Amino acid sequence: MTVEGVFMSKMPALFVGHGSPMNALEQNTVTESFQKLGKDLPRPKAILAVSAHWETEGTQVLANTQPPTIHDFYGFPKSLFDIEYPAAGAPALAKRTQELLGDAILSEKWGLDHGTWSVLVHMYPKADIPVYQLSLDAKKSPQEHLETGRKLRTLREEGVLILGSGNIVHNLRAINWKEPNGVYSWGLEFDQQIKKALEARDEKTLTGYADLGDIAKLSVPTAEHYLPLLYVVGATTQDDVLTYPYQGYAMGSLSMRSVLYS
């Protein structure tokens, strides 16, 4: 809600487990939770998405006036490639974000990838809220990713919904197609350890997740799907209330947990 252009309340910070791109087309418990979020959350002025699917050298901020819909996958049905998410960009907010971060560059060489639009087609199907993205700097440490998230905090007070999109547990090599809602013991243990750390505001464990040993190696074989969570955690304040809009698993090796701070 705004009065004379001033946002009256802080926007939430949200991490979602996006899972398969097919979730864009499907009606299931995960996508129903996205739809509910779109209805229940205060309407944002814009959305800043940190997606697992945009990795760069150095931090980049998407500054397109009209970002294209990127179909950054293969082997899926034509109906998925036909989806367009024609949300406007937010160039002024991209510039504002660049200023807050200090070490980022503006870019028009990307668009909205499926980590972003496969979620937003359910949250905001009319595509009537401006959306821009922040890349993951592949050279930064987990602690540096968290600290980048801290610099984004003020955007929440300016009407921006910060959306991290990835999966806390994400190991495609271990997919078990016979268990659509199942989870391996190591994935369950890692997800629960991260949940415990979130509730304790234990940033040491959240950024030092590799110290959890074999369960971390199996759950996070590469970091890109985990890191968006750190941006969301970094953007929180002590007065935020933590909830889980969705808790569940997919195909043995994916955690579909969503994490909301509001």
TrEMBL record:
<keyword id="KW-0560">Oxidoreductase</keyword>
<dbReference type="GO" id="GO:0008270">
    <property type="term" value="F:zinc ion binding"/>
</dbReference>
<dbReference type="InterPro" id="IPR004183">
    <property type="entry name" value="Xdiol_dOase_suB"/>
</dbReference>
<keyword id="KW-0862">Zinc</keyword>
<dbReference type="InterPro" id="IPR014436">
    <property type="entry name" value="Extradiol_dOase_DODA"/>
</dbReference>
<protein>
    <submittedName>
        <fullName>Dioxygenase</fullName>
    </submittedName>
</protein>
<feature type="domain" description="Extradiol ring-cleavage dioxygenase class III enzyme subunit B">
    <location>
        <begin position="12"/>
        <end position="238"/>
    </location>
</feature>
<dbReference type="GO" id="GO:0016702">
    <property type="term" value="F:oxidoreductase activity, acting on single donors with incorporation of molecular oxygen, incorporation of two atoms of oxygen"/>
</dbReference>
<dbReference type="Pfam" id="PF02900">
    <property type="entry name" value="LigB"/>
</dbReference>
<keyword id="KW-0479">Metal-binding</keyword>
<comment type="similarity">
    <text>Belongs to the DODA-type extradiol aromatic ring-opening dioxygenase family.</text>
</comment>
<dbReference type="GO" id="GO:0008198">
    <property type="term" value="F:ferrous iron binding"/>
</dbReference>
<keyword id="KW-0223">Dioxygenase</keyword>
